[in-house]
Amino acid sequence: xxxxxxxxxxxxxxxxxxxxxxxxxxxxxxxxxxxxxxxxxxxxxxxxxxxxxxxxxxxxxxxxxxxxxxxxxxxxxxxxxxxxxxxxxxxxxxxxxxxxxxxxxxxxxxxxxxxxxxxxxxxxxxxxxxxxxxxxxxxxxxxxxxxxxxxxxxxxxxxxxxxxxxxxxxxxxxxxxxxxxxxxxxxxxxxxxxxxxxxxxxxxxxxxxxxxxxxxxxxxxxxxxxxxxxxxxxxxxxxxxxxxxxxxxxxxxxxxxxxxxxxxxxxxxxxxxxxxxxxxxxxxxxxxxxxxxxxxxxx
Length: 299
Known about the structure:
single chain, 12 helices, alpha+beta
């Protein structure tokens, strides 16, 4: 189910896996293919992942190794995604997804591993369940932003319908995500992504009519406007959205994780090198809290 050692290294490079991780992954891959129990677990995991390929919102329960196996336990999802890769690429071809979009979308595996290494200093996968959306054909990277095929929930569906949009709970929407390690979130880059998304989904998923884009992120917390300039990229990004709903439960670790790379860092020791770092840390040090914002705009 896995490429041989020589080809495996090349496939990992195609998926933007950090160079520091490749030798270890190639070496451990032999253990996976040589161990009948690991191979059975791999086969079952791939079957679970690709079942209902392309369906929106399908629940995926990635199997985990049930014994302490160090690096192999941390990296087993990599082999699941590698073994599922032919299925994902076949679905992309069936939908006519361009090769460059497919490559940049699936390269989020490497980005995810870079995030893990930044936080822990070793090889691993930060959020395996998040990556299932990419490998199941639900999410696509189009320029600076990622767009996930989704459906309106009860609260957002009712809120947008009340605002006059022709939507209801369960109708299609696009969830918008902001990947790390991809440069500034400039207005021009966002405009380009939205233009690409309009063309992409009309061409490759014409049966799904998207009336709105949604974003659920700490970047939409309006408190950021107290600290950042009005012409900053984040503030201008916020201004694209209308409020869908407001959270009352603090989410202080969200900005700490995404700005500094580790949600468990001590607040008092957070660096103040950039305006965003100063905003996040100073607000927390003053006793404030951050919240996940929920925004939308019509398409």
